[in-house]
Amino acid sequence: MGRTVVQLTLIGLQLALTSTLLNKDDWDVYSFHINSTVTSRYATTVITSRVANRMDESKEIEFHVRIPKNAFISKFQMFIDGQVYDGVVKAKEQAQQQYTEAVSRGESAGLVSSVGRTLEEFKTSVTVAAHKKVTFELTYEELMKRTHGKYELQIHARPMQPVRDFKVDVYIHEEAGINFIDVKGGLSTKALANAITKTHVNKQAWVYFYPTVDQQTMCDNCGEQGMNGDLVIVYDVNRNNGLGDIKKFAGFFVHHFAPSNLPRISKNVVFVIDKSGSMQGRKIEQTRIALIHILNDLAEDDHFGLITFDGNIFPWKLELVQSNSKNVESAKNFARNIQAGGYTDINQALLQGANMLNTHDREGSASILILLTDGQPTKGVTNLGKIQSNVREAVAGKFPVYCLGFGFDVDFEFLKKMSLQNNGVARRIYVDSDADLQLKGFYEEVATPLLTDVTMIYVGGTNLTQTNFSQYYNGSEIVVAGQITDNDTETFTPQVVAISSNRRLVFSDPNGIVESGGSVSDDLIQRVWAYLTVKQLLDKELQLSGPEKEQVKKEALSLSLKYSFVTPLTSMVVTKPLGETIHVLHKPKESEAPQRGKPPGRQSISRHRGTSTRHRSDNVATTAAERAFEHWFSSLDPETFLDIFIHHYSPHGNPLQPNYAPLLHRFLLKAENQTVPLCFDVSGALSLKLLHHPSRELFVNGELDSVANGGFKRIFMHFKTNQHFEIDTKGVTVRDGQTETHHTGQDLVTAGR
């Protein structure tokens, strides 16, 4: 059968499928409520969506919401025609069979996916009978982290259409007293100002957001599909600058420690900057800008060093120097002239940075090592475990190592493990227009050390979370939770011991400031302990191996199941009415690249390159160009380009002819305001996602033929869960549920019902 017939058949199938696609006008979200309660910095948020099927036939109703990445989903329910369908949290292995079956059917079985920098998207759907209703209810929990002297509660509102009964209610209760409260985010605009009500009285605060139907189309990212944006509640609590704020209830306690009336400690900081080939272009430009800002912010009694590296190591100075105006200006000139190119020797760069700090041990100061890289080691020691071992030995617990991973080509687990092994943290820097501000923002978090060698002591306490911290920074907070032995509050005695410059400080309260639960719900303090314990066990498990690793994993899994937390070790099985597909919810890993936010229900061409197994080669110029193109490509709106053409060529640019050079697929992309199309090359076997309509569950994938033959070998189309089409040069195969039929190019194929 000729290619023309295949092409016409494919177009016919697409038109037939399009006529059967889901229309959201068929159903009405008549109520959408978000209710968030915050006590002792622990937020429990419930999203409730009520939807009616207005049609005379059954319709599939969708539920899409976005939640903070730091949160754990703890409950999901659907209420349909008097019946309640609960999500059940299981060990991931137990849910794996259902997950595998869903994937084999071409479904998107992982219902939670990363979206942007701070959010994850939860998605499910259910069939609702004519003129019937469904209520979706999702609960998630998170312990808010204090940075830059404040807490931020992020609430994302996206009901997918204007809603008559739309409400966001936030209640905050802090026994220490609320110092200030503010409302920010994309939904806090002049056009929506009168929809927001904020009240603050001593220990309590209320925020209400009740926009009208008309107002729900007036924010920057809003339109005919209603609200799509964030409401960010920003607040901080009063502080006594002593032992801190301790809550206890039912045998559990949580301790928030954040003194601020302390003198800053001068610091020794070494910046280790990757300048390999993949950093070329925008990344290195933004790194230069951020470095210059950071150097300007150094205090005069700070000492600093600067190392750049590719396959070789380039220290600005061989030792740390004081940050006086002369040295800072010299370092800024060095930063302005950083050029990208070459391989990546992370091991040697970090060892030299650690050595600089070890040989500059100033009494009464705090040392910090900061690594910025966008890739994986390609020169010197490239074994990740060996690099981690070398760095751990060189640092020897004397100072924290902070790893900043630029983009998604880094092995983030490698960076995270190395940071955790050295009392630091790893942070993703997103390749975006504000990457320099992200770098500067991270530095500001660690710019002002107030205490070192912090030890949290609890006489009469057991099952404690982390109690030793290498450094405490201004604007942050240390949180410890645990159990009170035999619930004996009389003998329970908390104390904090730390170093401030060269002075030993002891924080205690002889009068005993431990407060009873008051308005705290029965199990809230216990859930704070469980949440924090699971988070820290997951970090610990990453650092271990063998039987120890399995034991820690077992403990984390047990707690996740007991408190119904959806974590990397558990899955939630979303039950549905009899006969419908069961969805399995997995929490995505930090290493997974986020989806770029798109308005729901909109078609888009896949922006991801085909998966390749070849290793990065930083000294190859085309690699940097590919990466620059990737970033530009991912930032495009689908409507900014017209067509993708497939050309075939040899690496030498000659017309195709028999030779031994590898043949590559070349893709040319026409875009607005571009006179010459952009191109990128892909080698080897490749399947491309040609079209994905998420809300309507339509996938179109193509398997490229060999370069010599050209074009596609096969086209696959998947519609919902039970309609699958495979088109090749021999004909069309249609699978509708359990029925499979084969058609030639002369057959008429009808899709849909």
UniProtKB/TrEMBL annotation:
Domain VWFA, first and last residues per copy: 268-446
SMART domains: VIT, VWA
PROSITE patterns: VIT, VWFA
Main location: secreted
Compositionally biased tracts (Basic residues): 605-614
Protein localization: Secreted
Residue ranges of domain VIT in the record: 13-142
Region (Disordered): 585-620
Keywords: Glycoprotein, Protease inhibitor, Secreted, Serine protease inhibitor, Signal
Signal peptide: 1-20
Pfam families, per database record: VIT, VWA
GO MF annotation: an example: serine-type endopeptidase inhibitor activity
Parts of the chain that traverse the membrane: none
PANTHER family referenced in this protein's UniProt entry, alphabetically: INTER-ALPHA-TRYPSIN INHIBITOR HEAVY CHAIN FAMILY MEMBER (PTHR10338), INTER-ALPHA-TRYPSIN INHIBITOR HEAVY CHAIN H4 (PTHR10338:SF119)
Annotated family: Belongs to the ITIH family.
Name recorded for this polypeptide: Inter-alpha-trypsin inhibitor heavy chain H3-like
Protein species of origin: Maylandia zebra
